[in-house]
Inverse folding.
């Protein structure tokens, strides 16, 4: 009766074996899905963040460096019962905050995993770490992850340096290079943003094997697929940190800017924006709260005035007028024009000056007349058409000085200023005809003209160079022994011949020696050339402007100073400019009374 | 007449070689499962692989001792051992130490032994002796009842130790009973019950099953050409019975099984429902095996098993290491070796001239088969997770020794098969 049962056994044994083999074939050979799962299980793709490049000043003093910061991570499964009161004490949290942290952790649905390290507290500082380090072992399941953030050796230069922050979601979406990942740092403004490509370096990737607890167990395939992180390139800035700090000290409590340029290279020596902020406030844990405070400040400390504030240039523009008029041959240096104050008001004691004297005394009627000669050269019998032709010609010259366009400094958000064109007036007058008498205020740098302080300093440098300029830039070398970007090594010539510049130079020398600038801008042992400007700002006090360069021959520094609501250019502007020049050329302040005067800031008295 | 001490000529060396191959390959896999670059010594007793080596040496000694003892010893003392092991099993919950939630171990020094492991071969001997006894007739209901008592006692005691896996192994004796003449009815009912059980779990609401059974019943009656009343009644009764089974399974699953046991069964059906929760074992095990591919990652190159993704990877889930490191090829070879080994035991059992030895041989085959099916089946998600070892592969002294004893008693009996009077 038991016939065939033996065969049933054999059959069942073989069938089961075959079933297993077939099932295994499907799992192991047909379905690749499991191999992928195994990799995501056990191969940890660990990003190695590169060190961001350091930034030095022109004397190789360190300005920006990296400092470690720490994130507290949690692996939920490893957490044992701990004393929450102690935890709060160590990590400086209230009980409520701790509760929220845990709640928030659970709400990260996609990211959440009980076996992977998750960020729990971000950006602990060095000081926090000192307190935490010894006591961390009281809280199993919590780990420290180090990375670096920016730090600054001095509170100066905030606006030019810019700041670094975690890349935002919108930036990440816009990024087409595919370089950035969530959590990466990116330069947000200033040099940090402009030289992002050079500074950021290259991320490294390490593939590590890990066990079920997420604990690393050595490298994958002996590191065959790993790449090392490449640190970003260091930058040598053209900034003289000492001069910059001095400038910021002088600008304390004032709104405005100082721009100092080395004329022979276009290197920016100082770029002061007042008011400013301490760049250290925008790093580390306090970034978001400080950013809110700083960005909502009514004095706009984040507004980089040297590049972004567009002002009317005022009387300094008379130099530009003089140069164009000479080039157009509508005047010669000896041309005398009566100071007819019935046409336009003037100041000081003078009546019939030549060009140099008109500049030294900043004679308004003289330049009113000069511009009329410029714009109405009788190329057309129609006055309106003639003015249009003259203005077009005038534009060409003005723009060759870098006015009305972005100069192209190595900082973002540069404004272009404004040089009025015929089209602009057509729009302003709704296509009704206009002529010289409608637009004459541009003769003395008022009216529609708009320039930014950087353009003023660049103009001073152009005069210092007798007719050309290098685009101003803040980075003189990429890499410690490197060169600046190519565009900063090119000379830009103006449309005015250098012989005419010599006239402008001696006129500016006279401004300081015996003209409007003599009291505040004159320095012993060096010939300073300058020009004052007082920009009307009804109903508020005038803006005070001064441009200068020194020494007259072989100039080392060209400067523009713009102080808002500080009255005459001869006072605030000239005094600050002369102190800066003195500090740069002689490395000291020889006129303490002048510094005290500036620091007191009572320019209107 | 053969001489008693002529062992080498009569012992079945084919089986011994298979045994050796399985043990060797098994040890290599334990070595790989616990391999760590900082612990490379083969004899490091702090590692499972080092200890297993010790167990293997001991197992060889045990095997040798078994083969020099006369075969009559096993048959004679079968009931005595049976009584002794029942006593030990009773004692275990009292003096035993708890390992992994089960109180199934008796500690001897730093090692522990698991009486339930040894209960397997002792029960096999007792079952063999009972079946082989004079006047035993399988058709006799009383004999059948006694057989079930014989396997039911150690099974129940092992259940009491919460060692469900080992307890279920005793169910494999039903295969022996089948071979020795028990009606296949019980086997078929058992298989049907299992199918219904799985179906009940697969279908979220038992109402669907009742409807389906009703529909099948109606169809059978409608298309039955003879339409005899008796047949219709039988079919209806069968349908009602099946419905009863479904109702009880539903009740058992939802109200009797502990949550972790429910989850194991649920994980079998849908391991992806909660891959980090109750499906973890099965999911990770399948990932490990699946990632092996065709040729495997190579010896000691497995990432899933080495880094503890697979739980109990040197014991119950040792097959993951084989699947991951040796791929489909390696798995097929191991499975092939096992099937060949099982067939060889069947062959040995069938060539016996006495019922005791044949029943014992079938017990050996059935126990190995049960372990083989359940263990490998669970690692690839065909069988619910039941914690029983893969013979000769899983780490552990007790299981290796008990499997060795189980096998070598058969080899000894086989070697001396010429000595017995034909009783069949």
């Amino acid at each position: 009766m038991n016939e065939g049962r033996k065969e049933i056994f054999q059959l069942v044994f073989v069938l089961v074996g075959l079933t297993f083999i077939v099932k295994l074939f499907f799992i192991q050979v047909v379905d690749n899905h499991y191999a992928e799962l195994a990799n995501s299980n056990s191969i940890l793709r660990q990003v190695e963040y590169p060190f961001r490049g350091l930034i030095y000043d022109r004397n190789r003093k360190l300005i920006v460096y990296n400092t470690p910061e720490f994130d507290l991570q949690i692996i939920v499964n490893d957490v044992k019962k701990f004393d929450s009161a102690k935890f709060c004490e160590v990590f400086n949290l209230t009980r409520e905050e701790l509760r929220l942290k845990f709640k928030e952790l659970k709400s990260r649905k996609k990211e959440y995993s009980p076996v992977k390290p998750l960020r729990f507290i971000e950006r602990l500082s060095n000081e926090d770490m000192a307190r935490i380090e010894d006591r961390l072992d009281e809280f199993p399941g919590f780990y420290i992850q180090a990375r670096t953030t920016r730090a600054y050796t001095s509170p100066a230069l905030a606006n030019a340096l810019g700041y670094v922050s975690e890349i935002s979601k919108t930036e990440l979406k816009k990024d087409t290079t595919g370089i950035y990942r969530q959590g990466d740092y990116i330069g947000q403004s200033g040099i940090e943003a402009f030289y992002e490509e050079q500074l950021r370096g290259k991320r490294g990737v390490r593939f590590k094997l890990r066990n079920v607890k997420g604990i690393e167990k050595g490298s994958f395939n002996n590191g065959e697929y790993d790449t090392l992180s490449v640190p970003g390139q260091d930058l040598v800035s053209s900034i003289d940190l000492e001069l910059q700090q001095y400038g910021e000290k002088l600008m304390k409590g004032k709104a405005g800017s100082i721009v100092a340029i080395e004329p022979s290279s276009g290197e920016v020596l100082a770029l002061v924006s007042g008011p400013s902020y301490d760049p250290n406030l925008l790093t580390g844990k306090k970034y978001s709260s400080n950013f809110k405070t700083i960005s909502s400040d009514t004095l706009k400390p984040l507004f980089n005035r040297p590049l972004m504030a567009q002002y009317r240039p005022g009387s300094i523009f008379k130099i530009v007028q003089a140069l164009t008029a000479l080039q157009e041959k509508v005047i010669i240096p000896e041309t005398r024009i009566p100071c007819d104050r019935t046409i336009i008001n003037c100041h000081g004691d003078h009546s019939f000056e030549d060009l140099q004297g008109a500049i030294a005394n900043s004679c308004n009627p003289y330049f009113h007349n000069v511009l009329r000669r410029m714009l109405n050269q009788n190329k057309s019998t129609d006055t309106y058409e003639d003015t249009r032709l003259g203005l077009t010609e005038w534009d060409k010259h003005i723009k060759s000085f870098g006015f009305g366009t972005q100069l192209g400094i190595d900082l973002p958000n540069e404004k272009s200023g404004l040089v009025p064109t015929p089209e602009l007036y057509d729009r302003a007058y709704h296509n009704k005809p206009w002529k010289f008498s409608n637009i004459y205020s541009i003769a003395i740098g008022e009216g529609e003209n708009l320039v930014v302080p950087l353009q003023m300093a660049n103009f001073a440098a152009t005069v210092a160079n007798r007719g050309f300029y290098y685009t101003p830039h803040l980075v003189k070398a990429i890499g410690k022994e490197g060169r600046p970007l190519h565009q900063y090594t090119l000379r830009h010539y103006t449309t005015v011949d250098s012989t005419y510049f010599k006239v402008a130079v001696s006129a500016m020398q006279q401004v300081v020696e015996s003209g409007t600038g003599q009291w505040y801008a004159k320095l012993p042992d060096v010939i300073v050339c300058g020009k004052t400007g007082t920009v009307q700002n009804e109903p508020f006090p005038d803006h005070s402007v001064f441009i200068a360069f020194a020494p007259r021959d072989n100039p080392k520094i060209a400067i523009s100073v713009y102080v808002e609501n500080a009255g005459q250019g001869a006072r605030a502007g000239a005094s600050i400019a002369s102190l800066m020049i003195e500090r740069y050329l002689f490395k000291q302040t020889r006129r303490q009374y002048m510094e005290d005067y500036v620091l007191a800031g009572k320019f209107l008295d | 007449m053969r001489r008693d001490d002529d062992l080498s000529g009569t012992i079945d060396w084919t089986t011994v070689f298979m045994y050796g191959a399985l043990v060797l390959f098994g040890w290599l896999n334990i070595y790989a499962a616990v391999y760590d670059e900082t612990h490379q010594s083969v004899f490091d007793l702090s590692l499972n692989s080092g200890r297993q080596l010790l167990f293997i040496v001991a197992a060889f000694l045990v095997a040798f001792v078994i083969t020099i003892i006369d075969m009559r010893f096993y048959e004679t003392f079968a009931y005595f051992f049976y009584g002794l092991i029942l006593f030990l099993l009773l004692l275990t919950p009292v003096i035993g130490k708890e390992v992994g939630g089960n109180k199934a171990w008796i500690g001897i020094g730093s090692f522990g032994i698991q009486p339930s492991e040894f209960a397997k071969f002792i029960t096999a001997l007792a079952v063999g002796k009972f079946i082989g006894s004079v006047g035993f007739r399988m058709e006799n209901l009383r004999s059948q009842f006694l057989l079930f008592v014989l396997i039911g006692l150690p099974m129940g005691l092992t259940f009491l130790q919460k060692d469900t896996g080992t307890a279920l192994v005793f169910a494999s004796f039903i295969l022996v009973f089948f071979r020795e003449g028990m009606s296949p009815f019980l086997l078929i009912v058992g298989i049907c019950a299992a199918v219904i059980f799985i179906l009940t779990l697969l279908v979220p609401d038992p109402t669907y099953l009742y409807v389906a059974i009703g529909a099948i019943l109606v169809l059978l009656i409608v298309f039955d050409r003879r339409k005899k009343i008796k047949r219709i009644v039988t079919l209806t009764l069968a349908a009602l019975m099946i419905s009863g089974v479904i109702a009880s399974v539903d009740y058992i699953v939802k109200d009797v099984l502990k949550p972790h046991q429910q989850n194991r069964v649920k994980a079998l059906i849908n391991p992806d429902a909660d891959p980090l929760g109750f499906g973890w074992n099965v999911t990770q095990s399948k990932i490990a095996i699946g990632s092996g591919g065709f040729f495997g990652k190579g010896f000691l190159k497995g990432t899933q098993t080495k880094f503890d993704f697979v739980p109990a990877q040197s014991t119950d889930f040792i097959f993951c290491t084989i699947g991951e490191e040796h791929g489909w090829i390696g798995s097929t070879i191991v499975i092939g070796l096992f099937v060949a080994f099982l067939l060889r035991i069947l062959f040995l059992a069938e060539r016996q001239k006495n019922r005791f030895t044949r029943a014992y041989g079938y017990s050996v085959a059935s126990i190995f088969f049960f372990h083989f099916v359940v263990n490998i089946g669970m690692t690839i998600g065909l069988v619910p997770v039941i914690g029983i070892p893969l013979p000769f592969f899983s780490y552990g002294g007790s299981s290796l020794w008990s499997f060795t004893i189980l096998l070598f008693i058969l080899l000894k009996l086989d070697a001396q098969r010429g000595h017995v009077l034909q009783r069949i």
About this structure: Chain B has two domains: 13-181+268-419, 184-256. The CA atoms of residues 52 and 396 of chain B lie 7 Å apart. The beta strands of chain B are 97-99, 102-108, 111-113. Chain B touches chain A through 46 residues (CB under 8 Å).
